[in-house]
Amino acid sequence: MKQTVFEIETHVTDGEPTKVIGSIRENLLAIKNVLSIDVSVESTFASFKIAVEFEDGAQAKTLHRKIMKALMSSDRISIRQVTTKLNDIF
Which of 10, 31, 57, 65 sits between 20 and 30 A of 73, alpha carbons compared? Predict the structure, then answer.
């Protein structure tokens, strides 16, 4: 199995940032093949570092979509930036 880290920067648009991020973090940890999540919160901005494992590029792509879908399903945050090391995946 390969591993990489998806880095996602967000902005909390509604609610108490630590509570909103905590809830989202729990939802992301429930996704299969998510190993760990480090979150740093500064004011209303949060940076997620999501460690994942996968077998191949197709599985990594599917996993990334699940993570993004989970983040976009919340109307309390907006996504500012997404960073991934493609050489870890392909």
Answer: 57
